[in-house]
Amino acid sequence: MGRSSTPGEGTRPRVRHAGQLGWDDDLYEDGDGDGGKDAAKPETGESRDGGGRRAASHGRRRGRPRRAAKKKKHRVLRWIAFSLAFLILGTGAAGYLWYEHLNSNLRKGERSAGNSAAKKKAPNAAGQTPLNILLIGSDSRNSKENLKLGGSKKSVGGTPLADVQMLLHVSADRKNASVVSIPRDTRVDIPACENPDTHQKYPASNGIINETLRGGPGCTLDTWEQLTNVYIDHWMMVDFAGVVDMADAVGGAWVCVKQDVNDVPKPNVPGGSHLRLTKGRHKIQGETALKWLRTRHAFESDFGRSKAQHMYLNSVLRELKSQNAFTDTGRLMNLAETATKSLQVSEEIGTVKKLFDLGMQLKDVPLEKMNMLTMPRIPDPKNPDAHVLPKPGASDKLWALLRDDQSLDPKDRAKAAKKVAAGPKAGAPASLGVTVVNGTSADGLAPTEGRAGDIRDLLKAKGFTEADTSTEPGKALTTEVTYPHSAGAQGKADALSVAKALGMPAGTVSETPDGAGLTLTVGSDWRSGSMFPKVVEDDSDPLEGTESVNGAKTDDCMDVYWPYRQM
Q1: Most CB within 10 Å of its CB: which of 171, 300, 505, 561?
Q2: Which of 427, 423, 433, 425 is nearest to 518 (CA)?
Q3: How sure is the predictor about 353, in pLDDT bands with cuts at 50, 70 and 90?
Q4: pLDDT tens track for 123-135
């Protein structure tokens, strides 16, 4: 049996009456039987006399070749119809096989390693939720292709490191997007993880974030969630060879350097990407694109490398939009073939259709509303020359913006703040019913006994006399006040009043699906004391003082560190 040209529609039925006269009657006016037009003409009296017989006889002599011609025409049309049907059915089968081929290319893994700690944000009024995807670049040399592109044979068989880690955040309304990189040498708390391939178990530890790939991509995702409390929907991972193939499939991207660059080993500074470009703009692809993305020394640091990576990604997006790649079938087929071979993805997006749908959600985000930056950080006191820590205050503010689905553009946030200020006022404290939940066990430690009761009493002392505790424990890495989606602006105003009474920042307030009322969940970050843990006040914008790039800006150029300007 044939298949429809549209996957999922089943076998296409035959067109009704396709083989009968009347499908297009004008083509068969002299056909056999009663279907011809002559057969429908009434007889005249003249047809019965001799002249009529001669006319009829003459008509038959003339009619035979005409009917033969029409029969031939009929056969030709039937042949065309059958051929067309064959092509449709054949194309459908080929399309189905190609679709299945692409799906078989994809390598998939579990979204989480078992310690996913964040909650998914509630849908907005249109039923949309933010989209968060963790992009991971692996330095694996465990294939011939990857080994050719960098590293030594000694590295084969080793545990790969997640040297590139970026969180792509797309707002619920799909009107803005952000990309935040965490430097590979950031020291963080890493939850307990089990490697999905080797089944080796790793206990919870405090270490460098690029080591998290030892427990698989799901472990890297869990680490991000524990650090940021941002729910991450999916992960995608690519290795060296995948970057080269994807860069070729896109057709290259424009980059720029302010000086000549030659990233080769220097005395006491081994390694290097071997990127070699003259001053100015260049369209790069293939191995040159990989070299650009790996360049660290010539761009002075990992932070410079992150900025170069952001510039490259922005350029790729501009190229795809300019090529109409999201609507050009040929381009999509080529990109799909390459992407499915190059990417490893979390299992819930492990089909071509789901990956295509993700791409379509990015298609309409304006480039001027696409901001990319590297996490604000400070030197790690334990190893200030090599490692960093998230900058207190600034990084907390950044994570809160992502959790609350706010734009990183200060102008957008100012508009949103005015809208909130013009909204409804919070109800009187004594009129608000607040449920307090003990969620102090989210970090894997035993919960603090009686913590919900302590905070309930604290709220009552501040006028929230209707506050009560929940009989069910919860889990939250950070303390939060939530309100149901249906409560709208009034619910947010009430939640903000609870947070303010306890000295909690506005970023700790969020919306949840309907089903629970105004709720305060005491997290692992507030296990004791009557004062909410203060973070370092930092009124600066998260985009200030870090390597930020805007998608609409086409004249960005990388500075080259002076020792690497020699060609």
Answers
A1: 171
A2: 433
A3: confident
A4: 877 788 999 999 9
